[in-house]
Amino acid sequence: MNPAARAVHPIEQESYRRLRARLDTSHFPPLTRAVVERVIHSAADLDYASDLVMDEGELATAHAALHAGAPVVVDVEMVAAGITRRDTVCRLRDAGSAPGLTRSAHAIRLAYEQVGPGALWVIGNAPTALEELLTLDASPVLVIGLPVGFVGAVESKAALRESGLPAVSNVSEKGGSAVASAALNALLYHPVSPPLSPPVSPSVPQPLAPPVSPSVPQSEETS
To answer: Alpha-carbon distance 16 to 13, whole Å?
Structure first.
């Protein structure tokens, strides 16, 4: 997807204008600001400005990988439905539960078997899905871990931050499919910097031609 080709609806433009009139986000670095604003826009909740936790450098790496075609895995179809401009992997329909294993956790296992390392993971519903991801050697480019709820959500997000994995999370019980997909969309919609032109090699100076000796006139012979 080319972010520049995305048409922004006037309602969205007005929503962002009102958001910025009520909350100064100009101090955030570019990608952090994009994620914070889009999450707030999706939830109409200004408290996310202080609730979200992320790192600009990790977002930059994830942004580059996303636009280079890295796979995107989601925990539930509601998250997938919010990511309308990118194909996603969701294995919840194929998953089953077992003692000590929720269906959401099993879906994460199945997804990892499918995509392997280097994916972006977007979890907005089940804390057990996030907990399962943390047990795998998934080497994610980014984990957007924003499950919602009073049971396990805060703890799973804290564990994500403690894991050291590149992540977007939040501190409170809040979260959900809409805000998780919004965080991914913020990276998807953010402009891609044009590639740098290769440096121009400096001209190699050519050796100077040797100076031409002036002709020396021959002396006239005298008789």
So the answer is: 5
SS3 content of the chain, % helix, strand, coil (to 5): 45, 10, 45
Asked whether the predicted pLDDT for residue 187 surpasses 60, the reply is: yes
Tokens of 96: 């089953």
* Active-site amino acid positions: 41
In degrees, to the nearest 5, what angle opens at C-alpha 156 toward C-alphas 105 and 166? 95
Phi, psi (degrees; rounded to nearest 5) at 168: -120, 125
Question: Quick one: pLDDT at residue 3?
Answer: 57
Tokens 């972010």 locate to: 3
Contact 24, 138 (CB under 8 A): no
Q: Does residue 54 come out as left (phi exceeding 0), alpha (psi in the -120 to 50 range) or beta? A: beta
Closest CA to 182 of 72, 40, 49: 40
- Answer for the pair 145, 123: CB distance below 8 angstroms, yes or no: yes
pLDDT at residue 189, rounded to an integer: 95
DSSP label of 75:
S
Q: Is the pLDDT confidence value at 65 over 50? A: yes
- Answering whether pTM is above 0.70, one says yes
Residue type, 206: Q
DSSP of 138-198: ---SEEEE---SSSSHHHHHHHHHHHT--EEEESSS---HHHHHHHHHHHHHSPPPPPPPP
